[in-house]
Amino acid sequence: MRNSVRELRTSTGMSxxxxxxxxxxxxxxxxxxxxxxxxxxxxxxxxxxxxxxHRVEEIFHVDD
Length: 64
Prior knowledge:
Layout (H helix, E strand, L loop, with lengths): L1 E2 L1 H7 L4 H8 L3 H8 L7 H10 L4 H4 E2 L3
Antiparallel strand pairs: 1-2
């Protein structure tokens, strides 16, 4: 699944560590999500979307 987490994070000037702290996860989790090695759980995806004031489907894109 592709996602726009890195773009959203960098556009707000946040580091991976800062975003991780804001979401209550590890920096490694953010890195894994950004690189596509880990698909977040639905609750975490919703938390990420709310943090950036977007809908989940605007951030996470299912490849056909």
